[in-house]
């Protein structure tokens, strides 16, 4: 139990790594086709991601945990249809979807992440990460971007069977350092930081 000292917990996807590689993959594979139909590729990608996050979250609330990866690609044609494509399976292929999902596996670190973590550690903080993504994929994001994190400081919802913002996720992490001098939670998503603060004495 790391119940002393100073600790900061980071969200990873969308916070420490950006979605640009995914958006660039959509642009490369289908950019011209989408624009010809009046659909902005970046907005399409955002809608696709957000729909997948919602599906995972709502399934979790219903008592059934389903990993993000299991719902992400299957939603591809639905998002095309909702964007106004009347025959999505004639407009695009499974190979198109697989290519873009593959690019999602190659997300890059945001500028300054390594330096940020190094400064925090130099200031006496222990750095943690918690993610709703699967361990292999998200740990590969960190490793491929040279972002070092001990395995014991990495928490994935896959091992918990629940997803953020379920209070159990934050409680599981924060309980690891219940008596710490300082506890911080860092995320680019307001709902994420709000949920963490609601679940414990965290800055």
Name its key features.
203 residues, alpha/beta, Rossmann fold, 2 domains, 11 helices, 52% helix, elongated
Topology:
Elements: E1 6-10, H1 20-36, H2 41-61, H3 68-72, H4 76-82, H5 88-91, H6 94-104, H7 113-122, E2 125-131, H8 135-144, E3 154-156, H9 157-160, H10 167-174, E4 182-186, H11 190-198
Parallel strand pairs: 1-2, 1-4, 2-3
Helix pairs in contact: 1-2, 1-6
Pfam families: Hydrolase (PF00702)
GO molecular function: phosphatase activity
Keywords: Hydrolase
Tell me what the structure shows.
This protein is of the alpha/beta class and 203 residues long. 52% of the residues lie in helices and 10% in strands. It folds into two domains: 6-18 and 111-198, HAD superfamily/HAD-like (Rossmann fold, 3-Layer(aba) Sandwich); 20-104. The chain has a four-stranded parallel sheet with strand order 3-2-1-4, with helices on both faces. The protein has helices at residues 20-36, 41-61, 68-72, 76-82, 88-91, 94-104, 113-122, 135-144, 157-160, 167-174, 190-198; strands spanning 6-10, 125-131, 154-156, 182-186. The radius of gyration is 18 Å and the shape is elongated.
């Amino acid at each position: 139990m790391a119940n002393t000292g100073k600790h900061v917990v980071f969200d990873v996807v969308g916070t420490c790594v950006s979605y640009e590689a995914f958006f660039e993959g959509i642009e490369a594979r289908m950019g011209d086709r989408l624009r010809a139909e009046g659909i902005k590729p970046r907005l399409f990608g955002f809608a696709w991601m957000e729909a997948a996050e919602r599906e995972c979250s709502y399934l979790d609330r219903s008592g059934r945990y389903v990993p993000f990866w299991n719902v992400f690609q299957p939603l591809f044609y639905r998002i095309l249809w909702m964007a106004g494509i009347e025959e999505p399976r004639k407009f695009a292929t499974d190979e198109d979807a697989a290519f873009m999902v593959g690019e999602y596996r190659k997300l890059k670190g945001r500028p300054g992440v390594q330096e940020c973590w190094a400064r925090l550690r130099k200031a006496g903080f222990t750095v943690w990460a918690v993610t709703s993504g699967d361990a292999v994929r998200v740990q590969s994001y960190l490793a491929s971007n040279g972002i070092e994190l001990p395995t014991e400081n990495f928490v994935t919802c896959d091992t918990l069977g629940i997803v953020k913002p379920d209070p159990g996720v934050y409680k599981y992490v924060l309980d690891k350092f219940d008596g710490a001098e300082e506890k911080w939670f860092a995320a680019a998503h307001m709902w994420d930081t709000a949920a963490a603060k609601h679940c414990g004495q965290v800055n």
